[in-house]
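Record 1 of the preview.
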Amino acid sequence: MAYVAVTGGQEAIAQAEQLTQYYRLKGANVELPVEAIEKQMRLLVDRILSEGGMYAPAYAALALKQAEGDPSEAAFLIRAYRSTLPRNHYSLTVEPSDMRIIRRISSSFRDIPGGQLLGPTVDYTHRLLKFSLKEENEDEIRGFMERFLGEAAAKAPTDTAHSGVEEHVSLTFAKVADLLREQGLMRKPEFAGEAEPFDITRQKLNFPAPRSARLQTLSRGETGAMTALAYSSMRGYGAVHPTIGELRVGYAPVHIPYPLEEGADDAEGIYIGEVLLTEVESINSFTQDKESGEVQFLLGYGLCFGQNELKAIAMAILERSLETSGLAPAQDEEFVLIHIDSVESAGFVSHLKLPHYITFQSALDRIRDTQSRFEMKKKEGQYNANASELQTSGI
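->
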């Protein structure tokens, strides 16, 4: 839909775009390099990777620069660009258990095999503004990096594995949930066979949706919307208030099948790189297994691109919530999956800025017609204050 009624038409739209560029640059003393956004706003970049559904940190940083820091607009740009790319290969199944861990904690167990690895986090520090960052310069950055990496290298190999320094971490750990399954305390996932996963980027999402479609939609959902719905469930508008069995952040290897050899052994395939992931396995209220009669915990699962722990936790809550029956918002599959999509929801709300002249004129006509009938009834003495011909509706 174009602003055809705006004075100037296409020329006005072009000038509006130029004005946007001016407001982005006015008052800027220095250029904001895309690389600086990628490296120093990594958590925001990671959020765009997840909500945009494409693992490309440099492009996510570029989208943020173009969108002037608006996460919804940046995710929209990434999805639009992603839709133009050819799909050359399908990767083999990525195993989060093979992560090169940089952070791993459990709030369910104090002592877990391999220990708690705090990694990069501000969870245990005071939320105080660091005014010294206003004066930060290249010399200070370089000096800190040299001191920190020097200290880390001096402690290697004994302590470095638990310092959270990315360059030195190469450890993988067994999952806490797997240890509980071995003891018969965790319900084993139901094997659905080798069915091809649902592809929400190429297939229309219908309800009820298969689990693969739910997980894909949740993994691309908007962090704030998912957090709000998960919070509603924890407050009592739902049935899920879990404990985190394990939260892990790390780099998972990605392989593709051998492209030039049909029928080749694709057990490992070709290594093409790694992706940063956040995975959460939550432990929920227990249930009794119908076959064995054993009482076991239920698992909630969350996985998303980048380091986005809040979203992964919310995803684990909502994934388990959608497996339960009830009338709460977080238990309604259609309500959750439709409303957490950042591009869909932001686009629909934002479209209200586009011309609605005809629909609004229709509403004005109805109001004027109703008012004229009321005036006529008043003159004829037939007006009833308790009667109404109107009902609340959208315009």
